[in-house]
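Morning. Coffee machine broken again, so started the prediction first thing and wrote up yesterday's gels while waiting. Chain of 424 residues, entered below exactly as on the submission form.
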Amino acid sequence: MKMTEMAETLVRTGPGAAMGKLMRRYWVPALLSSEISQPDGPPVRVKLLGERLLAFRDTLGRPGLVDEFCRHRGASLFLGRNEECGIRCSYHGWKYDIHGQCVELPSVPQVASKVRITAYPCVEQGDVVWTYMGPPEQRPDPPGLEWSLLPQSHRYVSKRLQECGWLQAMEGGIDTTHASWVHRYVLDKDPMHRNALANKYIKADRNAVFDVVESPHGLTIFGRRNGEEDSYYYRVTQWIFPWFTLIPPFGPHALGGHMWVPIDDENCWAWNINFFPDKPLPEEELAAMRRGEGIHAKCDPVTFRPLAHRGNDWLIDREGQRNRETFSGVEGFAIQDASLQESMGPIQDYSREFLVPTDKAIVMARRMLYRVATGLPSGCEPPALKTDVQGVRAASVLLPRNVEAMHWAREALDDAASKPVYTV
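Came back before lunch.
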């Protein structure tokens, strides 16, 4: 199987596509709870996996996610009225509840019970409204990701629009070698990265050596750099199938993670999470996150499109690039990554890439995704559906050179909720 053929399968996520069917077996992050904060408040358009949907919170405070369009004449329910436990079409008054059932049809009330629109079940967890878009009989338990189960004071969650396919964005999240280059001049400046010993090792050794292990949750990725004379510095990234990444922390700062969720084949949501498992986020770091620093970004509050985007060349500063204020000339960790991934085009031309040994995690992730997506019709069971394998952690750690990192990780990082935080 050529990598180009494999990638073509992986980037197509609509309802009938193999990858789309696989992704619908998982709870999908749909929107922030704050986007529909008020019962009977304004509805919000949501596009996921190529489907145009509408989110609203009903009178009882329950989140709903339904087809955007009325069954009658196809008018958008975004223009409708959210009232009395339902969304009412402004065109002819047809009204639907959070389950998609038409509960009022004024002109022909006797047929209302026969009219439905698509509706997906929702749960709220970790400041996120999650939805399940797959077969009802195969719905898994709600997510067991550590950050989503913590008190609200312990985490911060944001999202931003990324104008490229989900696969090339996600692959950036599991590629630790880029940190030695694109982020090298800002590691010591950013509030969530400064004063970390890790910065020294990342800048000094730009050629990480990789070991990648397939795990029940997805992949565990070991990136090894030289540490001190008697140690190696490891960045241990966790990829939780199919779109979650837990990134290694920097020094005393909060742990981090991402979710890369397709809007359609050419755009995705980049979800960004910082958290401490055992204490509230410090106010200084929390304020920086709200300002769009670290792995977060400054975005339009309605569209979530970053203020630095493809249309303005990501506000690249050539003078700052020349003077080593930033390596790429783009400001901020999030947009530094997004600019490079979006620069590949809406869907990367995979026939032109030249992969090398440091891309081992990318190759293994593609193969795993393809194997499961194409095996689903014949009964292949998707990984990481069960919550008991989702509670892993990333790590940033110095280990003696005679210690096997994989053996250390089995003891230190699995069942993370009962373990201390490992960070350098």
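The first strand starts at residue 27 and ends at 32. Going to sketch it on the whiteboard this afternoon.
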